[in-house]
Amino acid sequence: MTITSRATLLLLSGLLVACSPPEPAAEEQPQAQPAKQVADSAPPAIDAVTGLVMAGDWELVRANCTACHSAMLITQQRGSPQHWLDLIRWMQAKQNLWQFEPAVEERIIAYLAEFYPPQDDRRRAAIPRDLMPPNPYSPGSAQ
Hints:
This protein is about 45% helix and about 0% strand. It is mainly alpha-helical.
């Protein structure tokens, strides 16, 4: 290896080290908490990579759900256990999601319903028709 090649390798390795985020110290790394302990203590930590609540079966959700889509699709949603089950069934029917073992599916749904439950203020009310702009694509409109 020539001196130029070694210098280039050293420069590149230095850039990689400088550009990579620092590893948090062991005491700074948030630890997942069992779901029971969450209610009795401070709010659970949020995973910096996915944004998922790090409690209960969050790793099971991360492993199964983010294999196909961003965790943001989870964290932006809210729903009851039935809503989450309906979403899973839709993904299985239309998006080729694999079948889960029943116990795994129950744990995923329980996590989602506990940490991403329905909220009244998540969506605005529908705009009344009389306040909507005209739809240029509706039947009878000039095109």
